User: Fold Neuroglian from Pocillopora damicornis.
Amino acid sequence: MFSSTHVDDFANKDPIPLQVTLGDPLKIDCPPHGGSYGASYTWANKDNIQLNRAEHIAITPVGTLHIMFLTQADVDKISELKGIACTIVAANSIFESGLVTLDPQAGSVQEKAPSWEPSSLSKSSEIAVEGRNKTLYCLALGRPAPKITWKKNGQQIINGENNYDIPDLFFGRQLTIMDVKKDKHESPQYSCEAENKMNSGNPLKHNIELQVQAAPRWRLKAPAEKLEVDIQGNGTLLCDVYADPVPSFSWYKDGTRIVSSNTNVKIENDKLRIENARMQEDGVYQCVAENVHGMIVSSTWIYIRAKKPTFDPTSGPFYLFKNSQGVLKCEPEAAPPPTFEWYRKGSKITTGGRYTVQKDGVLLINDVTDDDAGDYRCVAENFLDKAEYNGVATVYERTRITVRPEDKIVPERVNIDLRCRAEFDKRLELKYYWKRDDAIIKFNSKMEWLEGENVLKISDIIFLLVAPVESNHEPDVFTFLHNVTNPNATSVVLNLTGWSTLRFRMRAVNSFGPSRPSLPTGAGICRTSQSAPEKFPENLRGVPKRAGELDIAWTPMPKVYWSGPGFYYILEYRKVVEPASEDSPDQWKNVRLPDQASTFKVDNPGYYELWEFRIRAGNNLGPGPFSAIEQSRSGQDPPEGQPKNVAVQIVQARSAKLSWEPVAAPSRGSVDGYRIFYWGTSLLANARRRRRAIPSYANSTDVKGRTTSETTVFDLKPYTSYTMAIKAFNSGGEGPASDEIDLATLQDVPGRPADVKVFAFALYILITWKPPTEPNGIITNYQAGSAKYTGSEPKDTPVEMTQLAASKRRHLIGQQEELTNYVVEIQAKTEPGYGESVRIATRTVKISPPAKHNAPTVEPTGIDKVRVICEIAVGGGYTHEFLVQYRQKLEGEEFVNSSWIDYLGGDLDLEIGNLESALYQFRTIGRNDQGESPPSDITEARPIPGIVAGKRSTTPIHQSAWFIALLVLIAILLIVLLIFVLYTRRRGSKYPVGKREKKRAAHLIDRESFDEEEGPYQHQGDENPPPYQSQGSLDKRDSDRDSLDDYGEGPQFNEDGSFIEEYGDEKKPPADEKDQSAFATFV
Assistant:
């Protein structure tokens, strides 16, 4: 989101004198000017010295100046400024009106109750936009200047809370809602109230209904950047947008608007549907959602996919289990989806009997028997081609649980064993999983699976009943009410709130966790009677504001504790006499406040005066108990002193001890403590530091007490350069900052290595990682290793570690055993030692050839070469060697094999050279002692574009691009030079004398002699004067005459002989001034 500003200049900048009367209101509109948007207004003199806002002086958001009652001081100030002008600032533009001056007349001083200024009042119905700021403004006139209070739903709005900002600059007249949220800020009951002593207790009120709307935004997420649709298939693109008002939608394809639906592309407001897709539907589709507050645009490439059926060559065999339903899947990659046929022993399988061929290619075999083992063939066909897959089905015995866990009733704090055993086909591997409430149990110290004994061991069982309650004041919200610790209890006595309809439910708890809740009791069974409140509001506290201000705040009581209708608060407060005197204590003042109130502003509390207060709640049946008495002082000014001589005492890796000289105590007010600000940069970043003001992102910690002179700052980051500064503070704010001081924390043990991944093969385990996100110093090395473990968790299995260089990011652990559980551990080290390790459990696979590699990564490294990085995959044995197969992407091209590369020895990539500047296809094959992997998927890439070294261009020089470009450049230069010469000749800057005189002489042959001192030519018979001499001479040609005799003594020549007076751009006066009229027409 961005903001823009625009403003135009004033229509008239004439001075504006005004006759005014002292004591009367004065309103001066900003003079007429062009349209403005996003501009700010001030009133200032020509030196930009401003007339500041004050309690009785307001400048509205549109620049109108209001002086509620004109005083002699106001007149003197404007006179001192020599007048004031409305000044508009927008972006880099500043415009000033004419100066306004005042001619004052005597007047009377008359106090007036507040009245609204209609032109400077927010409308009774305003619209705000979510995520943006909204400003409300209320200007009331009166004498004394009215005080403005902002409220929402009858509760006073506190500056700085809930994103509300009431800037001091506007003296309460402006309310800004920052980052508007609908659920937080929308309300029909905003109000501004104006009050002075003329209407004390009966404020003037203006109500504002604020409706929050929203610019378009994605409801959950934007449409996908790419959508694949099979040819002849269907696809839907949803533009899921939330906006208020409801947005309009428009759709574009490749930048052109889709005006209406057609057979294949259907538009339904926020949906675009592709039906029976053709290749013509491929392209970039954009959705534009727009309302009055903005727009949002998405871009999606709809890729129409057409592919003949192909099968993954590594697809595994089929596993069938006797006496159950067998599922044989046929899953080719194809677009459009193909049709399927199944064959066994050369015969086609059709739906019927025990066989069902589903539309998606799945073959179902009911009640599997041994006879169902054997070869099966699936044929997939679409309009592009057909393909087939042959697979072998093996029939296994079905796994059966022979020993089932038994239900048990046991006393609390005992251990139990649950047994489970199963029979299975010995050709398979069996794993046990335990579940509780359909969730897999994670084993811990209280629940342990003894795999060799097939026993689940549960230790130290406990039992607890929890009773939650739901109130009609908060329906569907169950609140914790009581713990029943006796597992044999069947009833309990509860202390309930009044004036409520309650429902209850129970939940049992043991060492495993809570049970599901019971069904709640019936609605209306439990109704409590009305009574006076039994509780008082919590968190009663004083909130000192600016100097001479005090708010009293508390946490509103939930409705469940009201105990009856007509709920209210009674707040009592009084000033504490200092020194204390029993003879004349201040009387309690009390105020009754509505149920939603949470603050109260004390009127004229004085500067740093001590007050005490208490609160209680009441309803129609009477008041409840008072809270304890709390005390607070009213507001004060921030401290003026600056902490001196800040010094560093002790520095550790995560803490630093500072000392300073305390600030002197003020004559009035206090210093409550010190705030230490600190910010820094890791020493690993090698960033340049510069001194500056305390940044907004600085952290801080407080220490209480004026006389405190030292503290330890904790939570610092190791190996970091910090800057620190200290400010004294009190309830009025912070004082000036001390001089900054720099320090560097020590190194600490590092955090855990990041992004650790473990890849288990048969005889090897590969670990990859990244440096710790919290290195806490300079990493000196890593250590990693693996260890076998038994049971369900590795727990404290010790691991033998191998030291690794700090630069390493992968480590291959050899000499592992197949089909074995291992725990892998890795940790980093700095100078202080090793940090926390990462432990990951894994299991090696069966000894086998390498699994099919992932598609290789190919990086161009030159104009005729690339680097191919082998990307191995898990699921098979580790790759010992690999080769690269590559070919140009041309029909009929065969793959070329590289030599075998020692992957096990650390060669992870291969550079291939002598390539053409063309598109190539690359794939890899791995091998180990058990055999080769299938070829990987293909990666397409080309060398860096350019002329391949060693090849000669056969293009003739006259057809070469550089030669043609050179010719064009020469032609352009010649044209520019010709234009320059012609321009110079026409302007007559300086001409050679001979050529000038030839032209001039040729022209004078047919004319009378001309004496420049006598006047212009006397051309007989012509009504109009002849053309200029330079113009007339261009039409004549005479090469014989080259004399200056005809020119006389008038115009001058330069030293180089150039005649400059008549032809030059600047004219000089004639040498003889005796007759200026003679040159009246000589130009």
